């Protein structure tokens, strides 16, 4: 059976893609340059796209920055969030490699107030994804321990963790990834040991024993 060839984008669709990419590149250039201000006027000047066109695609700054978040992730090829404890450990080198692809922009997203706001807007979804990925580990330990484990792991698997290890220990991105993998694996292994220890301390009951 012949596979269907997807229809070629129309000229209007191609123009839309080109225009939006120019807008995103303009915003990225502002952030890389260290600008704390993100206004439609500045983005228009940097991108060469008229303000009226900017407003045609993005109703306000929030929608612009929301689109920019997804654009940056695609630009540096951020991997999909993990779905299991094994994937949590395994995805770290690919994640840190993504951060290395455009270090100035990633650092700007960490420290620029607008970049920080966009990251925090996605924090809940990220917490939920990691909670699901690690539920086989966290489901058998006390709730407080589970919360601490998740907080530590998500911090290690992040641009903040990548930046901290590079700056404070002069590690390369690859070295930082190895350090993060080691730490995350150690945390998971420790949680599993605690879980087994708790199970071993549980009193055994005879079948039919009504307690």
UniProtKB/TrEMBL annotation:
DNA-binding region ranges: 39-58
Keyword entries, A-Z: DNA-binding, Transcription, Transcription regulation
InterPro entries: Homeodomain-like_sf, HTH-type_TetR-like_transc_reg, HTH_TetR
Coiled coil: none
Matches recorded under PROSITE patterns: HTH_TETR_2
Domain HTH tetR-type: from-to ranges: 16-76
One protein family per Pfam: TetR_N
Gene Ontology molecular function, alphabetical: DNA-binding transcription factor activity; transcription cis-regulatory region binding
Protein name per UniProt: HTH tetR-type domain-containing protein
């Amino acid at each position: 059976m012949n596979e269907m060839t997807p229809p070629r984008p129309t000229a209007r669709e191609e123009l839309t893609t080109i225009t939006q990419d120019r807008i995103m590149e303009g915003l990225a250039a502002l952030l890389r340059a260290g600008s704390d201000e993100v206004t439609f006027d500045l983005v228009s000047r940097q991108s060469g796209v008229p303000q009226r066109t900017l407003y045609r695609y993005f109703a306000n700054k929030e929608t612009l920055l929301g689109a920019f978040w997804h654009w940056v992730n695609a630009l540096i090829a951020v991997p999909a969030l993990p779905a299991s404890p094994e994937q949590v450990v395994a995805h770290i080198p690919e994640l840190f490699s993504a951060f290395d692809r455009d270090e100035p922009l990633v650092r700007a997203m960490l420290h620029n107030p607008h970049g920080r706001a966009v990251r925090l807007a996605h924090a809940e979804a990220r917490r939920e994804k990691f909670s699901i990925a690690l539920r086989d580990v966290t489901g058998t330990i006390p709730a407080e321990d589970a919360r601490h484990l998740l907080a530590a792991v998500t911090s290690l698997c992040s641009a903040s963790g990548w930046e901290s290890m590079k700056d404070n220990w002069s590690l390369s991105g690859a070295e930082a990834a190895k350090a993060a993998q080691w730490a995350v694996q150690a945390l998971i292994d420790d949680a599993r040991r605690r879980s087994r220890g708790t199970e071993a301390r549980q009193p055994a009951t005879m079948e039919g024993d009504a307690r």
